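Hi L.,

You mentioned the student needs an example of a multi-chain input paired with its predicted structure. This one should do, with 226 residues in total across all chains.
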Amino acid sequence: SSELTQDPAVSVALGQTVRITCQGDSLRTYYANWYQQKPGQAPVLVIYGRVNRPSGIPDRFSGSSSGNTASLTITGAQAEDEADYYCSSRDSSGDHRVFGGGTKLTVL
Amino acid sequence: QVQLVESGGGVVQPGRSLRLSCAASGFTFSNYGMHWVRQAPGKGLEWVAVISFDGSNKHYVDSVKGRFIISRDYSKNTLYLQMNSLRTEDTAVYHCAKDGSLGEIDYWGQGTLVSVSS
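Structure written out for the whole complex:
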């Protein structure tokens, strides 16, 4: 399958930890990447290659993976983390990219 | 710093054509694959097409195959998307994006809006 499945919405209390998951068969073979998108803005890469964090991304963001499931964890969520989060990977052919449907994170 | 600036969007009737451009700067354009990713109003991200660093390989999502053509001009550091036979379902913000070291998309442009409507 070339699809990546995410929960549509997740909420977290300020300062608590939240995990956002992404499921798909291609994740058994290819890295997951994670993007944060705030309203009216372009997406920003927050995790790549399953666990790597680009320069400038706070260390409260981390990635992990097991089997066909990749996870983005925010440890100590801040108000500014409220956004849509998308996972992405390659499809089964390796040539195409695919995105999950996105998870809307609300920080309470 | 990496900059990707899209242009060429607008309102177009179904069945017509439009060409999007993306001016790239702040990195060695000829070293990286480039993508187009779109986002319909209120919807999620949809990958559209990729072109390899040397232009030799191009791949498309099934819904645009045969209608859209991705290309690049190294002399102008510019990425293009030729969109033909446009449909109402092609209405979206189209983002230009750059490949990273592990094949991830690491930088995005702000996007240009394409609206297909009669």
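You could point out the following to them. The mean pLDDT of chain B is 97. The two ends of chain B are 40 Å apart (CA to CA).

Best wishes,
N.
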